[in-house]
Amino acid sequence: xxxxxxxxxxxxxxxxxxxxxxxxxxxxxxxxxxxxxxxxxxxxxxxxxxxxxxxxxxxxxxxxxxxxxxxxxxxxxxxxxxxxxxxxxxxxxxxxxxxxxxxxxxxxxxxxxxxxxxxxxxxxxxxxxxxxxxxxxxxxxxxxxxxxxxxxxxxxxxxxxxxxxxxxxxxxxxxxxxxxxxxxxxxxxxxxxxxxxxxxxxxxxxxxxxxxxxxxxxxxxxxxxxxxxxxxxxxxxxxxxxxxxxxxxxxxxxxxxxxxxxxxxxxxxxxxxxxxxxxxxxxxxxxxxxxxxxxxxxxxxxxxxxxxxxxxxxxxxxxxxxxxxxxxxxxxxxxxxxxxxxxxxxxxxxxxxxxxxxxxxxxxxxxxxxxxxxxxxxxxxxxxxxxxxxxxxxxxxx
Length: 398
What we know:
mainly alpha
């Protein structure tokens, strides 16, 4: 039997097993689904929505071309991507997964970057946002704001290293754009902005409506993946498949002389990084440095859940998923290695004992509490607005 037929058999059996598991464990599946829905409704939707809408408007009004003109002398020599990639990098860092994939796909569809440049760009512009690293991981799981500095340095340092390595991806690709050797004048950059805005003939109201609709559609897709992988993780645990896979990880941990108690958290983190990071933080018999190394790897790898979100966005383009997946593995190794080398230098636990450290922790805790309070309201209001816009356009198009 051919490899293609074996793949078909494997996929069919996997889906059948998943369906049977949902019927065997209905209550557990429902609880896992509700946990995933809660994460999306309370946190993911309200945190990503503003960045998605603003990024769509920045592209529509030509601001990206303006910024790209100034970022070209940096992005082209360092990462071999156009200057507009600097905008994607900044927005991806500020908003987190999978904003980098969404914006890269948008630039590719607008023919601002080639397919090879898009594969380079998407490889290093997807990352966790600082609020997640400091608020959810460092303070929420480890109750240690000082650890956030180590995780952030390793995470974003790994991003940069991946970007530099991926510049060699498609090195035989012919560059069709003329390289800019110096910064353009303000007049030239503004002219590019003006020309870009004129090319988009949509009225301002339509641009805003399109931005809201496009953002909501992407976030609905993200929510579906979060719920799906939350249930999948629970089912794998109930079927004891997670424990069997953990045996393979145990061998690798023994080689690197890490506690074997990390095996189950790592398997869980490979599917969903938040759950894996939480399990790592509660692992006994391990030092904080060892926990930080494992968490750094899981956050950089991003989990199959976040990768599936990016893959679904890239599926509508010619951008291949394979280089993106390879970059996630590479960034996981880079982040874990950086954590190993800089932990003793950057981690300063006495910061917690100072008044300023306590104030910083209290501020983040208060901010997160407020975010969890208002997040669901933002989600509900935005969905209602999106429904109204969709309904009005249906009536207009009749």
